[in-house]
Design goal:
alpha+beta, seven-stranded mixed β-sheet, 16 helices
């Protein structure tokens, strides 16, 4: 049998009914069965996923290699077993919940051959309002630099890899990590690669947000997440020498994984877990938080990290509680510098609270009410700064009316609907000093706050009922919500047959377990 162009590795654990669409998207790939193989590893599923793999194998003889094993507790073991069984020139990893565009593999392989690339990332879009950072997909880039680009924000394993690269450097998933094992895997592959290409010309990968949210990453608790973050930090420090390249990777870790450990839901943890997270974050900040990284973090993240490093657990709880329950603290002028007046200021080192050079601090807003008003979503908010900032839901600007420190923010429902993907979209609402700047709104820098965009917080606001509106021939749900950090999100969710099927499937599973 000839060597295929690409082997697709799918790690499967309780992925029904999403698995059916995943596998269908593979067998219908335009690259053709002669140029691909599918290696699917059933990691001890109990919901019929293993039987579904066997059904596809029977219907497509020679295309599938299906392996069954006892549950390993995470995706690393099945991904490694699948990679060991792969034979293609390239290997692609696909989540069992997700699916591919019909031309995805053909286009990815063609690009890898054309550009002589070791790693190729095709555009990823979210389904069921799953939020996917899009800044890395601003344009097709045949040769993207790992350290001077948005790529460190997109280190999931949903990429095409040259298999020879993985074998030459013995790159495998870390089996001591229940979650997050794809990050060190992908990072090392990108670090070792001669060329990384990014394709923005087609919707290659559809990343699905499960309605039941039962996969291991969604359910992972803080203690496991801080353990994982420490392992990733140590891996980065071993792989990359100190300096700007290491900082470029660690910046994303602090601004994403570590910052999420200290969001408003931290207040709801038990004391023992809070202490464990505090101590882990303090260790990581003391070991790896350089001045260059600090300068690129948003004020809220930087303050929480500094207080975790230099203060006690109670100091950290007081800072988070201020944002979650009281609102934006006052700004204190002292010796020509500006400080955020959180609890602990004046007792902990002043540097923990310094916002003098933080462009996002004047853009911090507290939402006080959210209502539907005809064809608009209206948000009432309070700003401590003057003049008041502009507000956007990523690339969609809002109309902002100002009366003193009170703002009336209005989003047209028509804009939210027409400018959302057909698969749904989830947008963070953020504020910017001065006039609306689209480059910030699409998230090119706003995740770090370095360019002056701050997420609009709404931790104490009662959310209105979702609105159902017609979007062309279909109906869609528009739903404002707050995430675990207290930040305001707006989701547009299409009412599709898949959504109804998923809800019925959950109901059936609940009945069978009673």
């Amino acid at each position: 049998m000839s060597v295929p162009d690409v082997s697709v590795v799918v790690a499967v654990y309780n992925a029904m009914p999403y698995l059916t669409e995943c596998l269908t998207s593979l067998v219908e790939q335009s690259i053709g069965a002669s140029r691909m193989r599918i290696v699917a590893v059933d990691d001890g599923s109990t919901d019929g996923s293993g039987a579904e793999l066997d059904r596809f194998d029977r219907r497509h003889p020679g295309l599938f290699t299906v392996l069954h094993q006892a549950n390993s507790g995470g995706p690393a073991v099945p991904f490694n077993r699948g990679l060991d069984a792969a034979t293609g020139r390239y290997v692609f990893f696909l989540g069992a919940d997700d699916h591919l565009g019909r031309e995805a593999l053909e286009r990815l392989v063609a690009a890898a051959d054309q550009y002589d690339s070791d790693v190729v990332l095709g555009k990823v879009v979210g389904v069921n309002s799953r939020h996917i950072y899009q800044d890395v997909f601003a344009r097709t880039e045949p040769d993207m630099d790992l350290f001077d680009s948005p790529l460190p924000r997109s280190l999931a394993n949903t990429k095409l890899f040259r298999r020879e690269l993985l074998e030459r450097h013995a790159i495998r998933y870390r089996e001591d990590m229940r979650i997050g094992s794809d990050l060190p895997f992908t990072l090392e592959a990108c670090y070792r690669a001669r060329r990384i290409s990014v394709l923005a010309d087609y919707d290659y990968y559809y990343a699905v947000r499960r309605f039941d949210a039962t996969n291991i990453t969604y359910l992972s608790r803080h203690a496991l997440r801080v353990e994982t973050a420490e392992k990733v930090m140590d891996f980065v420090a071993e792989l990359i020498a100190p300096g700007k390249q290491r900082d470029a990777i660690l910046l994303r870790r602090f601004d994403h994984e570590i910052a999420r450990l200290l969001e408003d839901d931290f207040l709801r943890l038990d004391r023992q877990t809070q202490q464990r997270v505090h101590d882990g974050v303090a260790r990581m900040a003391a070991a790896h938080l350089t001045g260059d990284i600090v300068a690129q973090l948003g004020a809220e993240t930087r303050i929480r990290l500094a207080v975790a490093r230099d203060g006690t657990l109670d100091d950290l709880l007081a800072v988070i509680r201020q944002d979650a329950e009281t609102g934006i603290p006052p700004t204190v002028e002292k010796n020509g510098r500006r400080y955020a007046g959180y609890p602990g200021f004046g007792r902990l080192p002043d540097a923990c609270f310094d916002v003098t050079t933080s462009p996002d601090w004047p853009a911090k807003l507290d939402a006080t009410a959210i209502t539907w008003n005809g064809g608009e979503l209206t948000i009432t908010a309070h700003s401590s700064a003057t003049p008041a900032p502009s507000v956007s839901a990523e690339e969609i600007p809002a109309q902002v009316d100002v009366a003193g420190h009170s703002l009336r923010i209005r989003f047209r429902l028509a804009d939210l609907l027409t400018r959302s993907a057909a698969t749904g979209q989830r947008r963070a609402v953020s504020a910017q000093p001065g006039r609306f700047q689209p480059d910030l709104a699409i998230g090119r820098h706003s995740a770090t706050g370095a360019a002056g965009a701050a997420a609009l917080r709404a931790p104490r606001v009662r959310m209105p009922m979702p609105a159902v509106r017609r979007n062309g021939r279909r109906l869609a749900i528009i739903r404002p919500s707050v995430d675990a950090s207290g930040r305001l999100m707006i989701s547009v969710i299409p009412l599709t047959a898949r959504q109804v099927t998923a809800r019925l499937w959950r109901a059936i599973r609940r009945r069978t377990t009673l």
